[in-house]
Amino acid sequence: MMDKKTYQSVLKLICLAAFLALVVVYFSTVGSMIKKIWGLLSPLALGIVFAYLIDIPTKWLETHLFRRLKRPSVGRVLSILVSLFLFLLVIACILVLLLPQLGVALKQFGTNLPVLYQESVQSLDEFVQSHPELAQGYTVVQNYINTFMETIKAITPKIPDYAISIFGGVVNSVLDTAIALIFSLYLLFGKKRLLEQLAYLLKRFVPEKHSKRVFQIRRVANSTFGKFFTGQFLEALILGTLCTLGMLLFRFPYALTVGSVVGVSAIIPLVGAYIGGVIGFVLIFGQGLKLAILFLVFLVILQQIEGNLIYPRVVGTSVGLPGVWVFAAVILGAGLFGIAGVLFGVPLAATLYQLIKEDRKQFECKSVQNSN
């Protein structure tokens, strides 16, 4: 006969196995249900993200700028309002810089694309004629290009339908963002009371051992996420500024637009700056293929300088995560949750890594004490 503790453990394993089996059997149904639930909760989740990001400068303002106020609640309100204003101002500046020049660039791109395409094909034909050994490979590439162009022509009549679909998606995104922003304000203004309520619920209904573990995870996660986003935003600001100044120095077009895009996309670890580079290449391509290629060379050199000199000093080991973990977190996050997964995968992995390190230290300390 097994004892009560063993019986409970076996029962838990059986229930877990049955649950996993049901998930596997009804995977499509479970996936559809999760997708619907996520669609309902996504504005709230985005609101939590907004609240956390706005709270980072809020805490600094509350501690350094408004700490001498007699009423701390007034300092908290002023800090939130200033941080929210700065948050919205950054977004507005990016849109003001991006949208007008983006419209002009796309118009020029559409006008110059046929001419650039013909010039590129002609130059490539002349190059292949001077190198006959490349003729077979060029034929294969040319077939792929022709197939791609035929596909573009085939979907051209459907562009109005795509435009309507995109417009509907933009409207939904704007509404979700507005709801998220309002929800974030509720969280920010009620932060102290909300944390006290959560702490009470944990202490009241969760065993002390597990509640302490939750508080430990919260402490590590809060520290890790704060350090990561602070360093990442500062690094993105530096990279965007350097990109803009460099493009102005070398007289590349759309310097403010491309620099802003590169800076904003650099918030995404590892691949962000290159995403901005692709957008910049498309914009500059309307002015000429050679100029667009020179821009890519410039951005790669700038990214190498930034990655080897600036990033280690600004972000450095602030999250204490080895490079292989960063790479794995970005890949897995992108595959599971897209851009959001890429952005939050690194601090989540850093939190897990830090918790494992702390557990290892505690285990080693206990081992030493037991040996003594």
Model description:
The protein has 372 residues and is mainly alpha-helical. It folds into two domains: 163 residues, no CATH class; 141 residues, no CATH class. Helices cover 88% and strands 0% of the residues. It contains eleven helices and no strands. Helix 7 crosses helix 10. The protein is globular, with a radius of gyration of 27 Å. The chain starts with a helix and ends with a helix. 16% of the residues are buried. The mean pLDDT is 77.
Looking at how many chains there are and whether they match, the oligomeric state comes to: single chain
Structural class by sheet pairing and helices: mainly alpha
* Low-confidence runs: none
Structural domain tally: 2
How many individual helices? 11
Summarize the structure.
This protein is mostly helical and 372 residues long.
List keywords for this structure.
globular; 88% helix; 11 helices; 0% strand; 2 domains; 372 residues; mainly alpha
What secondary-structure arrangement, pairings included, does this model have?
Layout: H1 4-25, H2 27-65, H3 72-130, H4 135-155, H5 159-189, H6 191-205, H7 208-249, H8 255-265, H9 272-285, H10 289-314, H11 323-371
Helix pairs in contact: 2-3, 2-5, 3-8, 3-9, 7-8, 7-10, 7-11, 8-9, 9-10
